[in-house]
Amino acid sequence: MIHLHYFAGLKEAAGKAEEDLSWQDGTADDVLQWAKQTYPAFDFTAVQLAVNEEYVHLDEPVKPGDHVAFIPPVSGG
Prior knowledge:
It comes from Domibacillus enclensis. With 77 residues, the protein is an alpha+beta fold. 23% of the residues lie in helices and 31% in strands.
């Protein structure tokens, strides 16, 4: 099981802020591909992934118990 977290517009598109996903082993890219199939309304063009609160490359391993956050672009002023 991994724990997924969605922020901003992604949270609205998913209809939830977080969920658990049955998971054995894979990479951040595998999680991203799952999300693209599950939530086609997401705009993934600039989404970054964080695993256990650290930004990662798509080849980063994701293991059961990990927390994966989908972080859309943010702007500030």
